[in-house]
């Protein structure tokens, strides 16, 4: 479950050839809190969480709701359902190339979906495909 926290917090996943970076202790605490709350609120399955740990993302409603919940709690999404790039960039841990992250986020921020959860999920997937950062703790 902690890997999913990392994925959502920094829009990153574990993939081969990526650069390793670590969350700060404060980020770890918040990520754990938000994950616990969002798992409970979204009803996401253990299978979807385990699949996300290895970079396979479920397109089911519960997983999309989990991503949206995490984005909302971490203020990565504004109340109007748009990506808050400044907050997203500020929440990246030391070691992440923020210039590269900003470039990828600019490409991803206008992704759409049939609702807020779909939009959050599409932004999340876009960033995953466009970045090479690992976030570890």
TrEMBL record:
Residues 1-18 form the signal peptide. InterPro entries: PBP/GOBP, PBP_GOBP_sf. It is found in: Secreted. One of its GO terms (cellular component) is extracellular space. SMART domains: PhBP (SM00708). The keyword Coiled coil does not apply. Keywords: Secreted, Signal. One of its GO terms (molecular function) is odorant binding. One of its GO terms (biological process) is sensory perception of smell. CDD domains: PBP_GOBP. The keyword Secreted applies. Pfam families: PBP_GOBP. It comes from the Eukaryota. Belongs to the PBP/GOBP family. PANTHER family: GEO07291P1-RELATED, ODORANT BINDING PROTEIN-RELATED. This is Odorant binding protein. It comes from Bombyx mori.
